[in-house]
């Protein structure tokens, strides 16, 4: 690649020797475009630099789109500072295109400038993005909104993200956290289930669903037992029996989540739930086994 770069510059020098200044500038631009076609971004960048230098010496105005083209090559040649300089020149000339703003966002991301990365991505999304989000911009915006604690925008952009991005554990976990904070029970339930499809050992999702079914069962149990204690009739007993079937089913669902949690971490908090569940099942031996872990 180095030989190609050198040869291209040498050609430009030879051209300088035999021709006038206006043709030299055209030569540098042509050499830059030729280098791009060959995938030689370093040579393209150097020839764009020479092109701009010659134009400045000749006091010729440079079209802003040329700065944008050069900036893209400099970025691909691993010269982000130079790329940023040229992109800014293009912006000063009121020029913009989709590729330029995607590159700007990447440059700011590499520099750790979250605010400017966000501005570039939002500009791209407003002006160039189609519904398919081929570049994954919405996913990156979601991650930034999480970082800057803009939950409202994070929730707003979630449905517009690519399906494959909404299936990623990291994104699902962040969205799950937001929905729990917003106390959106049904959405949190569905996201927890999606998380467990991706990662069956996802602790927050297991806890969420385990506690959901446990609390659901325990509240029903307490409510129906109070009704029966207040009214010991045959009809009320039949109703209690029916309700206890639902209670048992919910406790069994809770068990499906607390058992994996116990395998992950044998701590007293999980043991307490397991003791209560097996007590409701009238299984004292198993309940006593977990009771040993409560201390």
Summarize the entry for a quick read.
With 295 residues, this protein is mainly α. It has helices at residues 2-18, 21-37, 41-57, 64-76, 80-92, 98-111, 114-127, 137-147, 151-157, 163-166, 169-181, 185-198, 203-230, 234-264, 268-280, 284-291.
Q: State which percent range the strand residues make up.
A: under 5%
Compute the number of helices: 16
- Report the CATH C-level class of the domain at 201-294: Mainly Alpha
Runs in which pLDDT lies below 50 for 5 or more consecutive residues are 1-25
Which structural class should the secondary elements be placed in?
A: mainly alpha
Helix content: over 70%
Q: Give the overall silhouette.
A: rod-shaped
The radius of gyration computed from the alpha-carbon positions, rounded to a whole number of angstroms, is 32 Å
Order of helices and strands: HHHHHHHHHHHHHHHH
> How much is the average pLDDT?
90
Oligomer: single chain
How many strands, what sense, and barrel or not for the largest sheet?
Answer: none
CATH architecture of the domain at 201-294: Alpha Horseshoe
Distance between the termini: 69 Å
Total beta strands: 0
CATH topology of the domain at 201-294: Serine Threonine Protein Phosphatase 5, Tetratricopeptide repeat
